[in-house]
Design brief:
The chain has helices spanning 2-34, 38-49, 57-72, 132-138, 163-174, 185-191, 231-242, 296-315, 337-344, 373-383, 417-421, 441-444, 457-475, and strands at 76-99, 104-105, 108-109, 121-123, 125-127, 146-148, 195-200, 225-230, 248-271, 276-286, 322-329, 353-358, 365-371, 396-399, 430-432. The chain is α/β, with parallel strands linked by helices and 489 residues long.
């Protein structure tokens, strides 16, 4: 009789648990339709804060704001210091113009951690000298001049002004090579040039000083501006210089350096598991963003979807069996620094992670997920409430066909990479432009067009619900996801 009562009690507890889970899921689905705040988060991140580069006060501001939102929703929050940079960098306004009878306002940008001007600075324009003879001919005229440099298509990075690059240039010149990149860079800086101007395709991609930013001190700051100019304007100015016309360029660039160190943190927010608190389902995106625009898409949209998934679950009173962690990474654009730190320091033991869902693409809709056969039944069960959630944006679970892939051995392009390299499941949703709204990720990727108006609210709001329901369902499975067939052994 005792065994019967125990069995009945266990069945009753299971039924109550399933009912509670179903109630939470239903509430998330309803709130997703009627009180979805994804775009509110996006608006603050992109429009109020804007560019959030490593080393800037704006990234620190964003970290504090995101952490405070999670706390307000009742989550446990850890601020994990993952990145330190010795010198800080903040960007102010910038402007430029050509001073001539046919003058024009200039369309340009400067990579982060490169020099600004000391107020508005005017100068004549010279073409870059490519040989010793050409350098000797213009060396007296370089002081106070802007130098046009054609190095082929730019990738948005700063000119390499490091000592290593200077040594490489010197060696190449000594060997008589003809295709040396800015062969007399150091000599021109020492001669007193105002800066260098390179052509850039549109929309303009403007990144940072990769070669030097982590090694800078307040005694070794760059002195010559590094300007990426609209290629069409560059062609006009180059022709004027070739024709030896009388004109000037004026730039006013407020790039500000200040003593560090600047420290940046991963924001780790947790809904604690009731039965297996040391096991986790992880979702995340990266908070840092280039500051030529506002980082709305890369990766503000990933952050706001992750945040809204957390808010929806908290508002629905979710009490999952295992913990759900919402990971807002730092330093992704500088080499996946935040997620690398998290994984390599085993912040969560690798064997305790069911899956990490990364979101770092376009502002598109989660429409499907493809999983190994060993995970398929679990995902079908977990995602069942989503199949008819939004008929306009159908959602499906697909079983992966064919052999498992090799485990990656080098870091990829986003924060899933170090998870996958260490054999941790990092299966993410497929995201598509369901309505055919002509979104092109290349138009905004690290460019001046990465703005709030490129976001697609219907897709982001939908995706927040997909993330919330899936994470909650996985956290309530009686087991962690199987890793059988995840990668080739």
């Amino acid at each position: 009789m005792k065994k019967i009562w125990l069995s009945l009690g266990a069945a009753l507890l299971l039924a109550l648990s399933l009912h509670a889970q179903d109630k939470v899921t239903k509430t998330v689905l309803e709130l997703g339709r009627t009180d979805n705040r994804t775009m509110e988060h996006a608006d603050y991140i992109a429009r109020n804060i804007g560019g959030r580069l490593v080393g800037t006060h704006m990234l620190n501001h964003a970290e504090e704001w995101v952490a405070e939102q999670f706390r307000a929703w009742g989550l446990e929050v850890t601020m994990q210091e993952a990145v330190t940079i010795g010198v800080g960098f903040d960007r102010g306004p910038w402007s430029g113009r050509m001073l001539a009878e046919d003058g024009m306002t200039l369309h340009f940008g400067t990579p982060a951690y490169t020099a600004g001007t000391r107020g508005p600075q005017k100068g004549r324009v010279l073409l870059e000298p490519k040989t010793q003879r050409e350098f000797d001919r213009v060396k007296g005229a370089l002081r106070g001049a802007w130098v046009l440099v054609e190095t082929g298509p730019t990738n948005g990075l700063a000119l390499d002004a490091s000592a290593k690059a200077d040594s490489t240039r010197a060696a190449q010149l000594a060997e008589g090579k003809k295709d040396v990149s800015v062969p007399f860079y150091r000599q021109m800086v020492e001669a007193g040039v105002l800066g260098f101007i390179r052509p850039a395709k549109l929309p303009m991609q403007v990144l940072y000083n990769r070669a030097m930013c982590f090694d800078l001190t307040m005694d070794t700051l760059p002195t010559a501006c590094d300007i990426l100019l609209d290629e069409h304007q560059f062609a006009i100015i180059k022709q004027k210089a070739l024709d030896r016309q009388d004109f000037l360029l004026e730039f006013d660039i407020r790039n500000h350096f200040f003593p560090g160190p600047m420290r940046h943190r991963n924001i780790l927010a947790v809904i604690k598991g009731t039965q297996h608190p040391d096991e986790y389902v992880l979702l995340g995106g990266h908070l840092d963003a280039y500051d030529i625009a506002t980082g709305a898409v890369d990766d503000g949209q990933g952050v706001c979807v992750t945040m809204e998934a957390a808010r929806l679950l908290a508002a629905a009173g979710a009490k999952p069996k295992r913990s759900i962690m919402f990971c807002i990474w730092t330093g992704e654009e500088y080499g996946l620094l935040g997620s690398k730190y998290f994984v390599e320091n085993k912040t969560v033991p690798w064997g305790k992670i069911s899956n990490y869902f990364n979101r770092d693409g376009g502002p598109l809709a989660c429409t499907s997920i493809t999983v190994p056969p060993a995970m398929y039944d679990d995902f079908v069960k977990v995602c069942a409430p989503l199949t008819d959630y939004n008929p306009e944006i159908p959602f499906t679970v697909n079983k992966r066909e064919g052999e498992p892939q090799e485990r990656p051995t080098s870091a990829g392009g986003s924060d899933h990479a170090y998870f996958a390299m260490n054999g941790i499941p990092a299966i993410s949703f497929r995201e598509t432009d369901v309505f055919g709204l002509d979104f092109n990720y290349r138009d905004i990727w690290h460019t001046e067009d990465d703005l709030f108006d490129k976001l697609i609210p219907a897709y982001l709001e939908h995706s927040a619900v997909i993330n919330a329901v899936t994470a909650y369902g996985l956290a309530n499975l009686p087991h962690l996801l199987s890793r059988e067939g995840l990668y080739k052994e």
